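Team,

Forwarding the record for the chain on the shared tracking sheet. I've put the sequence and predicted structure together so nobody has to dig through attachments.
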Amino acid sequence: MWDDIEEAINELNKTLSEYKKIQKDYALKEYKYRTALSKKLVQLRAEGQAVTHLADIARGMEEIAQLRFDRDIAEGLVKSAEEGINFYKLKIRELEAQHSREWGATKFQ
């Protein structure tokens, strides 16, 4: 039983390590998307586009849409990693509770 707990802890540590990388990647993609969108909005406004339609026009441009797509995928990976972390934390709690039930209340006669 204790081996199962240790294995779950190791998996949690791996997931946390991956989460850091995934979160950094997400932040970088968010940065690229936001800065590119901002630059495109300024460019379109300078070209005389109506302010009311700027956001729709800019987000529909292939380069900006691709950056948003990449950002959205990275965001999904972050959420998936967070769920993985929660899964391993719950699994560890359940295993520890089971271990306590089986070994914590032993009575010697």
